[in-house]
Amino acid sequence: MTAAALATASGWTPEALARGAVAQVDLDAFRANVARCAEAAPGAALLAVVKADAYGHGLVPCARAAREAGAAWLGTALLDEAIALRDAGVDGPVVAWLAVPGARFAACVQRDIDVTASAAWALDEVAEAARGVGRPARIQLKADTGLSRNGATAGDWPALVGAAARLEREGVVHVSGVWSHFANADEPSHPSVARQIAVFDEALEIAAAAGLRPEVRHMANSAGVFGTPRAHYDVVRAGIGMYGLSPGAALGSARDLGLAPVMTLRARLAGVKRVTAGESVSYGSTYTTDHDTTLGLVPLGYADGIPRAASNAGPAYAAGRPRTVAGRVCMDQFVLDLGDDAADPGDEVVVFGTGGPSADEWAEVCGTIGYEIVTRIGPRVPRVHTGVRA
Ligand SMILES: *Cc1c(COP(=O)(O)O)cnc(C)c1O
């Protein structure tokens, strides 16, 4: 297919055509998925999780589209990600939750970003930042209810809450939220789910008894949105569902959940050639042609986020039908066996997304999760956003 023919299809920019690869991000589908997540948690406000460059989909365009679709809150892991949102002109409630000592708390206070404290050191640094900036910091307190990642344990919670309440009375901080995170929300009947909710409810009571009146209490990720209504509280934190992928097989496929693909990874064949039966393909000679056949070369590899674990396993759509990666995925390229179907250099391949297999199918054959497939697509692949509103 010629570049001119592809250029008439949406989502191929001249830069992407020349590169031979593009991650098209459909913001109409994204907004529909945001609305779908919101509809699944009707009593709660939606916090759109846009960490890790919006799971590889583009931080700022996705943040804006999430707001357009009604997300009251935005959430990031790193403070710098939240700062980047503000510096791009995105306003409204934003919370960040992962910081080390010396992180840019003052920059967050200046920009009215909620930060999270799970321990006394963080509370101290936020208080110091607030005094330096000369205005109260908005702070959310995180309880560890059983994930054993961030968050204060039940043993440390009363002291953290007490210290935060003192700082609030002094006008140094405003405790805007209390929250926690599930370990097994993708398995709603897992006994830890109910146990974590009970521990969280206790943490909320302790916070209330200390005089805190947080604006928002939240616990559910996408899996909790679809699988554990009891955990919706005031806000739900949706990530993967907005990006059109399933939060876990037990909850159903993305399609079952009414979610549409957002990222479509397309490439153009960098080479097409006939070979005879008995030719081995790619490093290690792990694939051998069993007929005379046509090989198509795709200019994407593990440096671009195509998992090497997809060798002889990854699905793709090319030359009119579904294919499987032939041989090993290399750093920059992989090969598809196109059989006797007609193909030309420059023809389009759908690696995943609309018109091809899903990122969840890639995850399945690679022994990982759809989150990792989309998040790893690297900077050598241009992102093109469709459905951007003026
Ligand atoms: C990433 C993240 C989420 C979103 O999880 P999904 O499974 O993608 O919905 C929610 N909360 C926290 C704390 C997270 O780190």
Estimated helix fraction: 25-40%
Strand count, sense and barrel status of the largest sheet are: 9 strands, mixed
Q: Give the CA-based shape.
A: elongated
CATH fold title of the largest domain: TIM Barrel
| Terminus-to-terminus distance | 32 Å
Instruction: Work out the helix count.
Output: 13
Radius of gyration computed on alpha carbons: 24 Å
Mean pLDDT: 97
Could you list some keywords that capture this structure?
single chain; 390 residues; alpha/beta; Lyase, Ornithine Decarboxylase, Chain A, domain 1; TIM Barrel; 31% helix; 23% strand; binds pyridoxal-5'-phosphate
Description:
By secondary structure, this protein is α/β, with parallel strands linked by helices. The chain folds into two domains: 135 residues, Lyase, Ornithine Decarboxylase, Chain A, domain 1, CATH 2.40.37.10; 217 residues, TIM Barrel. The protein is built from 13 helices and 19 strands. Strand 4, helix 7 and strand 5 form a beta-alpha-beta unit. The longest helix is centred in the middle third of the chain and has 19 residues. The chain starts with a helix and ends with a strand. The mean pLDDT is 97. Bound molecules: pyridoxal-5'-phosphate. The site of pyridoxal-5'-phosphate has 14 residues, from helix 11 and strand 9.
